[in-house]
Amino acid sequence: MDTNEQVISVDNISKCYHVYARPQDRLKQMMFSLFPKEQIKTYSEQFWALKDINFSVNRGETVGIIGRNGSGKSTLLQLIAGTLQPTSGNISVNGRVVALLELGSGFNPEFSGEENIYLSGSILGITRQEMDERMQAIIEFADIGEFIKRPVKTYSSGMHARLAFSVAINTDPEILIVDEILAVGDAAFQAKCNKAFHNIREKGCTVLLVAQDPYMVRTFCTSALYLRKGQIVAYGNPTEVTEKYLMEIEKAQLDDEKKVEEKLLLTEKESASSEAKDISIQQGPLYRIEEVKMLDSNDQVITTVKSGQDIRLRFNYKKLTNNDDKVVFVFSLYRHDGLYICGNTTLMDKLTPFPTNCTGEVEIYFPKIRLLSGNYKWRVAIDDDRGLGIYVEAYTEIFNVIDDLEAVGLVNLEREWVIKTNGGV
User: Fold this and answer.
1) Domain 6-246: which CATH class?
2) pLDDT tens-digit series, residues 162-197
3) 320 — phi, psi (to 5°)?
């Protein structure tokens, strides 16, 4: 198998739909289309489901397509499968395509499950004799019992999914295209499908699937495609692409929450801000944090960290008054969306409060940092000697952590497995 052979090429495709406010507007548009071009009046609005999409897929790759609802994922799969035609651009597909785009697509609702198996085979160019040889494997995988003899219109959504997927994996697809059809199956069926996915991928099948689970994309896919409002945001390494997707989703959720809070607390904020302004004018700042940076073991500034790497967080400060107060130093770690992960102070680590000179430098050493893949930011601060009042604080820019998929989540806990099994037949 030549893994460098290009089997799917999407060249600058766009897909536009015409949206009509009323049914009669569609009829008017049809009538005006008979007129000379310069006299045609438009009764619709244009909606671009996809715009200027470019990417390619090599044989044997598994591409996970992610994005929010309405981003164009299903439209893209339909264009590649050939059930839709692009408004502009070209798509080249080299290989037998089996597409699972929606429940029951390609099935005749009046035919039995068994009859639809033969129908699907004929559509794919497989002879009845060849389908006879595959029939038992298809029926066993679908596992829908006596319903295989009944009309498909009597099937539940789960039965549709079972039969459609069973036919797909047993017809030797060279390119398998899967929308979110598997979401309707139970846990046991999804586990069965995942195993089948791995098997056909190992045989060299190219797979394109829409998936909402970033963990599945990271573990199963060789690359990922992130769509937003019909355009490609990122395409490539599945870990990097899914992290970008999650980061934007979390940011959007956080923005929505902030908007609600702002509306509810607007009056209180206005009165509190005027009072706080008077206090700050009277007190004035006591310290200034001038530089915060993250360093590797070679004392080089870094913005990307490998999970398990030794790092140091360093910041400089300047004293702005002649007070003799002692201070406590602080660090906190946040996920990019503001989720608090951990924090500590010199006081919590049993260090007595520090007297301060005109300037100073603080460094915190983190050996073999156990963070997992994601985007994070540091906060540092100078507090009063009780660790309660904040004199000054500062944040780093967001930094990225990469890992080798040793675990999932936020941190990679040190662990040791102890497993005992009982004897028996």
Assistant:
1) alpha beta
2) 888 888 888 888 999 988 655 555 667 777 777 887
3) -105, -5
